[in-house]
Design brief:
- By secondary structure, this protein is α/β, with parallel strands linked by helices.
- The protein has one domain: HUPs (Rossmann fold, 3-Layer(aba) Sandwich).
- It contains seven helices and five strands.
- It has helices at residues 21-27, 44-54, 67-72, 84-92, 109-115, 134-139, 155-162, and strands at 32-37, 59-65, 99-103, 119-123, 143-147.
- It is globular and about 55 Å long.
Length: 165
């Protein structure tokens, strides 16, 4: 006797197609925080950063680079290690994250403008004035933050260690 198909995990309800982002963002508790990135091999630095980003508001949207977008970033021919669908699942499973979407462009500007967050956040390697979407978020009264790294971790460095480099 075979078991009935399992229901999708609850965290998959956090997935949001880009076409639905405006409506999903508008339905979130304000203030909404937005961040983006690759988040390929999730590590302590990532989860700490996302928790700190979420603490700046009432809801957190994370936009992930598509696989093609990651390859255009020049992170290496074999990146991303994990496909978009897998990266989305891991990010969505985090308590700090409310919505996970994706973008295929070289920057997340369209997603930022669509979501209209009150708070835009990137990691400490981004000066506030260099953060894509900063002028737009400020134009509607939002804030832009660069969160200092709490744990010096890097997917690139992790991969070098794995490969014996």
């Amino acid at each position: 006797m075979s078991a009935a198909p399992a229901a999708p995990p609850v965290f998959e309800s956090k997935f949001c197609a880009p076409a639905d982002l405006a409506a999903r963002a508008a339905a979130l508790a304000a203030p909404v925080v937005f961040t983006n990135g690759v988040f390929d091999l999730l590590h302590r630095g990532h989860v700490t950063y996302l928790a700190e980003a979420r603490a700046l508001g009432s809801a957190l949207i994370v936009a992930l680079n598509t696989d093609a977008s990651v390859r255009r970033l020049g992170k290496g021919d074999d990146r991303p290690i994990n496909a978009l669908e897998d990266r989305m699942a891991v990010i969505a499973a985090l308590q700090s994250v409310d919505v996970v979407t994706w973008f295929d462009a070289d920057t997340p500007l369209d997603a930022i403008v669509t979501a209209r967050p009150a708070v835009l956040v990137k990691g400490g390697d981004w000066p506030v004035d260099a953060i894509v979407g900063a002028p737009e978020v400020r134009s509607w009264g939002g804030q832009v933050h660069s969160i200092a790294f709490r744990h010096e971790r890097s997917t690139t460095n992790m991969l070098a260690r794995i490969r014996g480099g």
